[in-house]
């Protein structure tokens, strides 16, 4: 059962009683940061609190596993828009331990697609068009390796200014503790 009507009912009251007022801010991040992180439910409130971020401080881009899976996909485009159009001058890529994406088994996921009505012919057509569906759906295994791979994609992107530090971190979704994997500022000093 959908929660749409409950959400719309709450929203009507939210707007009517101006409960949005504490969240009013501009589209430009006050701390000039863009964060790529995971869509995990545990991070919705924990990550900003653990980083001392409030509404209006940062731009947040979310993807399964905090991955930049394609250098010219929507995630990378969002990061570039944040840097060039929305005045972000620092990028944080933050994965987390116990990530669901780390254990995605493509074969099982394809089976679930078929169980929910995706025709097997469609699966074959997708594979025929040159997309390796199994590889595209595959989980990443080690979160640190995955974060560092995304850091490298962003740092070395031909459209990313070389002066923008790109940091890589991993978070404990139970405590909010952040572990630094790659300090973008230190990387820039070495150039």
UniProtKB/TrEMBL annotation:
Q: Which residues bind Zn(2+)?
A: 38, 40, 96, 99
Q: Which InterPro entries match?
A: Carbonic_anhydrase, Carbonic_anhydrase_sf
Q: What protein family does this chain belong to?
A: Belongs to the beta-class carbonic anhydrase family.
Q: Which cofactor does it need?
A: Zn(2+)
Task: Say yes or no: keyword Metal-binding present.
Answer: yes
Q: Give the EC class as a word.
A: lyase
Entry-linked Gene3D superfamilies: Carbonic anhydrase
What does the note accompanying the cofactor annotation read?
Binds 1 zinc ion per subunit.
EC assignment: 4.2.1.1
What is this enzyme's catalytic activity, as reactions?
Answer: hydrogencarbonate + H(+) = CO2 + H2O
Reading the lineage from the top rank, the first entry is: Bacteria
Q: Tell me if Metal-binding is a UniProt keyword of this record.
A: yes
Against CDD domains, the record matches this protein to: beta_CA_cladeD (cd03379)
Keyword annotations of the record: Metal-binding, Zinc
Q: Name one GO molecular function term.
A: carbonate dehydratase activity
Q: What's the name of the protein?
A: carbonic anhydrase
